[in-house]
Structure formats: C-alpha cells, structure tokens
Amino acid sequence: MNSSTPQPTFRTENRPTEPVQRFRQPADIFEALFQSIQGGETHARPTLELTPDSPFLPFLEIGYALRACAEKASRHDYLIERLRPHLSVMIGTLPASILPMGMLPKLAPLPGFRPLEQISDDEVRSWLIQEGGLIYGEMQRFELDNYFDAVQPFLPPGGVMVDLGSGLGKVVMTAALSWPFVRCVGIELMTYRHRLAQERLVRLLTLARQGLEALPQPLTPDSPLMLPSGVQTSGRHLLELGARIAFIESDMFKVDVRGASLVFLYSTCFGPLMDALSNKLARELPEGALVTTTTYPIKHPAFRLLQSHAPGTLSWTSVMIYQRIGPQMAEPASEARYLHQPDVVAWEARARADLAS
After folding, report:
1. Predicted local distance difference test score (pLDDT) of residue 141
2. Whole-number Å distance between alpha carbons of 302 and 285
3. Do 194 and 107 lie in a common domain?
4. Which of 89, 177, 241, 255 has its CA 20 to 30 A from that of 338?
5. Of all helices (H) and strands (E), which one includes residue 21?
6. CA neighbours within 13 Å on the CB side: how many for 273?
7. Which positions of the chain have pLDDT values less than 50?
C-alpha cells in the first residue's frame, strides 16, 4: 500500500446480522437500510429484447453470429479463428453472452442478421469490448465498508460521488448512507439494471421513512447524527436521503463528471475501456478529485496514485485510489496502455474444452 496515511484494519467477511425488529435509534435505521440493499449479485439476468428498434441491435446481430458458430461443432474452428486475434480485450475464455446462460435471447434472428463471415474483425473486437462491460458483479458489504474506510482520509465532507457503471445501485446507496455527500449519482447503461436500481431506491426510502416515524425521539434536521463511518453530521442526512441520490440511464462516456469529487469504477471487466475512461476523467475532473478503480490501474499522468490495496486485503480484487493532479487535459495522453495477451495455446485448449462440453 502507498501513501503515509495509516492503513485501517480491514474486515475479511460480512459480520452476522439479524433483521432489525424495532427502530429505537438512528443506528437501527442505518442497519435496516444497509441490509435492504444487499444481494444484488444474485439477481436474475433477463435476456436482451430482440426488437427492430432495440438500442442493442448491432450487439445482438454479432452475438447471434458468434453463438451460431459456438452451437455447431463443425464451426468451432472458425469461431476460434475469429476470436483468437482479440484475446487482449476478451473477458474469460469465451464471451459470456454466447453461452447458454448468456443475455442473448433464444429467439430466431431477425431477417437481415449477417453470418459471422460477413462481420469484420473490427466489429468483432468492438463487440467483445462492449460485451465485457455487460458483465455484472457487486462488492460485498464488508468490502464496501473497507472501501469507505480507505477513502475517508482523502475525502472532505460534502462533494459529489459518481459511480460509472452503477448496476443495481448498491455502491451509490451505500455512499449516501455512509458519508455526507451532497449528492450520489449512478450512471448505468442497461435499462433493466437502471430499473432495478430505481426500485431498490424506492424500497430504501420507504424503509427510511418508516424507521424515522417509529423513532421514540423524533429526528430533526439539526439533530446531531453519527454515521456508521464515524463521521458526525446532522439529521438532514437521513431526512433528505432521497434528495441526495440519483440514478441516470446513460452511457458512461456520454455523462459529464465535471462536478464529481469522487468517481467510483468497479472496473474489473473494463480492461479494454480503461484508456478511454482515463482520458475522459483527465479531461473532465477538477484537480484534487478522487478516482478509485478495481483490478486495472490508471496509467495516466493526470492521476497520482494515493494507495494501492492488494487482492484479499480491502476486497477480493485489487483496489487503487487516485487523485487528479495538474490542469485539465484536452487531448489523450498517449497510446493504449492496457492491452495484454494471454497465452494463445492455453486459451485455445480451454476454449475447445468449453465448446465441447
């Protein structure tokens, strides 16, 4: 770990919890709210809608072409031939979307869908990059507790937190509960995930209102309030919770993060996107803003590494904390820096075994 800031003692597992039965104090409300936003990683993934006006129509067309090859043993050699040049941008052995439990619908392809022979290598590569961004995962509760312990020394009260690729909203809502941010915003491309995040938020705010109404001593806007993170604030933190949380359905590259003081990237599946994301954040973020990533570091001169936490310490994967330094940058800093090349022979053996199973 870098930086002279003392390292907190990190948790290694979720502590046992019991459902909150009564709201005697604000701490009971916080506990009930945290419990209500767990478990999103096990949600049912619906398939993408196959309609002529679907925004994912190009993705569906290429996915169908790849899956058609995966489903026929006589086409496995050609599929491997087409995937082999793009291992540096592929997550896993085979793209998750073309596997039986993937997000491609089981319906027949639309008229006009091209076979793989008519799809260019550039299109396949772009598809693989997009496919990696659709994979979903969440940090466990204890990992997010560790995360906010780690960023707390660098984070002044207030400010705006932005989660790029916010999924079902767990990080955004955890941030709004844990720290006195002025606003916490989640950006999510997938419509169904955005919808589930909105539904989760409604349940969270309903539970918060019930808890506040049940307190023996009413919480007022100016009542002293201790957050679970140990930060002292006022009752407005809970009373105005809904006004501090927002979810936006959009492409992360189309949303300006100019006002953010903390950007959270659960970037484990964003490897091929890290250069573009780094350049975007360098252009838009003010000096002093924090950016955190998982698995993939930021290799850009506009960011200074504050701390690096190895896998198995703060979280199951590595977590890096950066600070934006220097003036805003209008142009990309340099060429691509994240490409990696797995062992081709080992990959092909795994791919053939998976296709045959």
Report:
1. 95
2. 10
3. no
4. 255
5. none
6. 27
7. 334
Give the number of other Cβ atoms within 10 Å of residue 322's Cβ: 26
Tokens 């589930």 correspond to 196
Radius of gyration of the chain (CA): 22
Going 22 to 23 to 27 to 32, the CA torsion angle's sign is positive
Angle at 186 between CA 183 and CA 191, to 5 degrees: 145
Residue 6 parent element (H or E): none
How many whole angstroms from its chain centre is CA 302? 22
Q: Which helix (H) or strand (E) holds 280?
A: helix 274-284
The one-letter amino acid code at 234 reads S
Question: In terms of residue numbers, what domain contains 125?
Answer: 57-135
CA atoms within 13 A on the CB side of 240: 15
What digits encode the pLDDT tens for the residues 100-124? 878 899 999 999 999 999 999 999 9
Coil, helix or strand at residue 225: strand
Residue 102 has a pLDDT of 84
Nearest to 173 by CA among 103, 228, 119: 228
CA 319-320-321 angle, to 5 degrees, is: 130
The pLDDT, as a whole number, for residue 48 is 86
- Are 128 and 144 part of one and the same domain? no
